[in-house]
Design brief:
Chain lengths: 495, 311
């Protein structure tokens, strides 16, 4: 066995990202690793490359335990990873990129440019490429950059190559080009770990497939004879053990009506849907499917260039967040730290940040009104804080998220868009956030919830839309939706 | 922030105590008044600079803006413009220079350090070229000390400075725009999402710093009977130092004007106290640099502690 990972455990805060995961790789094998968003693929890769330390478990390379793993240790041992976005230095030449990690010697050594160029040529030739070593890496196409990275890895005694969604942004021809290189590496005896959402590719290139789900190894099986449908079932099948505080509330008239919405800048095309009062409308899809871009278009961050949006019957054309807020649209963005709360400011100021006009007259802030408003929402959402004057940065992630939600409910919106509302917060806070969503729906708010967690989508939504490549591929009723169907639609698999 | 202000206050008091013991002449009324008077314009510039730094930006061109505005004030006064109009024209000239910075930084997304560094060199050299370094002399009597007695003029300068400082100290806490500046400096994307007009506000702050610099130049020019075009040399260092010593975070979002006032007070005392203590004046910049470095290290250490707590 070339590489063996056994009993790998990894926790991030309260979240168990990997639960006793085992994985192995033989020399000259392409082993595909698949799973939906958050299944634990990236974390496993990070453990193998030493980017994170596992809490338990062992990694062995050629029978020897890999100890004190770190990116430089794993590289020295011959484990390399190549990501969807190539990590080349665009302003350096191909030869320099390849030499960067491979040439021995310290920072003061004299560079032998001729040898450097020849070494680059030789490594590139090994994988059948004739890229000019003097070209600047930034001028290369995506697959060419990937090839340069593979050549770089070859130069340091490559044994295991990890490819993380290498074909996600490649054309069919470019994919073929990459597959040729992969086959050459396989001949050489290199072990390849291949991560991809393009299930239909796996039959062509992979020898075995391992499915991860919720941080667990579900099954490892030969790729030949395994169809996409089976893989989807394995990726999705789960006992819905998590209990969601979903309540049935009366659904009213449409509040948000979107028709043929397009925005080239955001990369979304012909999107149509309605969200009714009291309804939680879930939007599922893979990372990069255009869900956040849709939210940003509705919120006026990337103004639409086609289609119509109506809020409570009135057509709106939001060109910036202020207009969106005025139109009754609120948006709790993902990435709480940089887009949500303002850590330096107190809870009070964070809560009122989007409604400064309501707590001020002629530009002057009314601190009494501010405290009143902040108190009201901090209590309503039961934010745990040392008081409304405590800096938001001192709160736990879950409570920061509640403050972020409070800010937007304080605008008294008609439509509330939540982007990954429970990302990175612990189970208890998650459940509280879900309860808040139900309370808001009960009050007649139309809620759009973008989430990469299928259980959350299935557990909380009244209806579910699935997006991929900037388009909406269908809307499912709560009763009809299963994780299999959603995944199939999200992956665009014709099963 | 509060501990920091106390630490600076203590440092300041110690410095004053040493001065009292070693050089009682320091506290002669005339000396203190001169010191305050020559630093009042720098405080006005530091007020504007505080706003810029709170936003997470910087403006190193204030010294050159000050020089241009000084010449504008001199020319306006000499042309016989009434005093009020002279001051207004000078402030507007400053605002225009600040707006130009703002346009480069917000409109063209040039990093503020680069845009204002270019402006600093450009205006200074343009002024050297156009004036040939010649002083503007023969200003009307109605200009110096505003045509009042020297004491009367001084009182007006103090009052104007105090009024402007007081207004901004109040405004940063009580105006929506003040809250917006803090939000931008702390997390500008979050501020934008919350509907705060980030671009407009940022631009206005640069223009405002220019206007305050112009106003400071006008008040400063009134102290003399002639105007020299190399005024304001090193003013950017002084203003930025006052803000940083006052505890503001150079990356924005934290700090306030009372800190800046303390910082300006500390800086104002250093140079003359060296003279009084018989220390070579060459040490002034070194000591100033040391204090700034100390202030930044303290601020970073505090920031490190804060982020450690948040995780």
């Amino acid at each position: 066995m070339l590489l063996t990972a056994a009993g790998i455990e990894k926790r991030y805060g309260g979240v168990r990202a990997l639960k006793h995961v085992s994985f192995d790789l033989q020399p000259g094998e392409v082993h595909a690793l698949i799973g939906e968003n958050g299944a634990g693929k990236s974390t496993l890769i990070k453990v193998l490359t030493g980017a994170v330390q596992p809490d338990a478990g062992t990694v062995e390379l050629e029978g020897h335990a890999v100890l004190n793993n770190s990116p430089s240790v794993s590289r020295a041992l011959g484990i390399a990873a190549i990501y969807q976005q190539p990590q080349t230095f665009p302003d350096l030449s191909v030869a320099e990129n390849i030499a960067l990690v491979n040439e021995p010697g310290g920072l003061t050594r004299k560079v032998d440019w001729k040898a450097r160029r020849e070494q680059a040529k030789k490594l590139l030739a090994e994988i059948g490429s004739d890229i000019d070593p003097d070209r600047e890496a930034g001028t290369l196409s995506m697959p060419e950059q990937q090839i340069v990275e593979i050549a770089k890895a070859l130069g340091s005694n490559l044994k295991v190559l990890i490819l993380d969604e290498p074909t996600a942004s490649l054309t069919d021809r470019e994919t073929d080009q990459l597959f040729r290189v992969i086959r050459q590496l396989r001949e050489r005896g290199t072990g390849l770990i291949y991560i991809s959402h393009r299930l239909e590719e796996l039959g062509q290139i992979a020898d075995r497939v391992t499915v991860l789900r919720d941080g667990e190894t579900i099954e490892t099986r030969p790729a030949a004879g395994t169809d996409s449908r089976t893989l989807i079932r394995l990726m999705a099948g789960r006992d819905l053990s998590a209990v969601f505080p979903k309540r049935v509330v009366p659904i009213g008239a449409p509040v948000l009506e979107v028709r043929g919405l397009c925005c080239e800048e955001a990369g979304i095309t012909e999107i149509s849907f309605d969200v009714r009062a009291g309804e939680i409308f879930g939007i599922a899809g893979l990372v990069g499917a255009g869900r956040t871009q849709l939210a940003e278009t509705l919120f006026g961050l990337t103004p639409a260039d086609g289609g119509t949006v109506r809020v409570a019957g009135t057509e709106v054309h939001t060109k910036n967040p202020r207009e969106a807020i005025a139109a009754g649209i609120a948006y709790v963005p993902e990435d709480r730290r940089s887009n949500g709360v303002v850590g330096e400011l107190p809870v009070r100021a964070n809560t009122t940040m989007a409604v400064l006009d309501r707590i001020s007259s002629m530009g002057m802030l009314d601190y009494g009104a501010e405290r009143e408003l902040a108190d009201k929402w901090v209590q309503a959402l039961s934010v745990k804080t040392d008081g409304i004057d405590a800096p938001v940065g001192s709160l736990s992630g879950g409570n920061q998220q509640k403050v972020s939600i409070a800010r937007w409910i304080a605008t008294e919106p008609k439509v509330l868009i939540l982007d990954e509302p429970t990302q990175g917060i612990d189970v208890g806070a998650k459940s509280e956030c879900h309860k808040i969503m139900c309370d808001l729906a009960e009050k007649g708010l139309a809620i759009v919830m973008i989430s990469s967690e299928l259980p959350e989508i299935l557990g909380m939504s009244d209806r579910i839309a699935v997006m991929s490549k900037g388009r909406m591929h269908g809307i499912l009723d709560r009763a009809d939706a299963t994780s299999e169907i959603i995944l199939e639609m999200a992956l665009g698999a014709k099963a | 922030m509060k501990q920091r202000a106390i630490a600076i206050g203590i440092f300041w008091v110690i410095l004053l105590t040493v001065l009292t013991l070693r050089a009682p002449g320091f506290f002669a009324g005339g000396n203190l008044r001169d010191m305050a008077l020559s630093n009042a314009p720098a405080l006005l510039v530091a007020v504007g600079m505080t706003l810029v730094i709170l936003m997470g930006e910087i403006d190193v061109s204030v010294g050159s803006q000050f020089a241009v505005a000084t010449v504008v004030a001199g020319l306006a006064a000499k042309s016989g413009l009434p005093l009020g109009l002279t001051v207004l024209v000078t402030a507007i000239a400053g605002a225009l220079l600040g707006s130009l910075n703002g346009a480069l930084i917000i409109g063209l997304r040039v990093p503020s350090i680069v845009a204002t560094l270019a402006a600093m060199a450009f205006w200074r050299e343009l002024l050297r070229w156009t004036t040939g370094g010649a002083w503007i002399q023969g200003l009307p009597a109605s200009f110096q000390w505003m045509g009042l007695s020297q004491a009367g003029g001084e009182i007006v300068i103090f009052a104007a400075t105090a009024l402007i400082f007081g207004f901004f100290a109040w405004a940063m806490r009580n105006l929506r725009a003040g809250r917006g500046i803090y939000a931008i400096g702390s997390a500008s994307e979050a501020a934008r999402l919350a509907g705060i007009p980030v671009a407009g506000l940022s631009f206005s702050v640069f223009a405002l710093l220019g206007a305050l610099t112009g106003l400071a130049a006008a008040l400063n020019a009134m102290r003399f009977s002639e105007v020299q075009p190399n005024a304001g040399a090193g003013l950017e260092l002084k203003a930025i130092s006052a803000v940083v010593i006052g505890g503001a975070s150079i990356s924005g979002g934290r700090g306030n004007l009372w800190g800046t006032l303390l910082g300006a007070a500390v800086l104002a005392v250093i140079a003359p106290s060296l003279t009084f203590l018989g220390i070579n004046a060459f040490w002034e910049k070194a000591i100033q640099g040391g204090i700034i470095l100390g202030a930044i290290v303290l601020e970073r250490a505090a920031a490190g502690k804060r982020s450690a707590r948040a995780h």
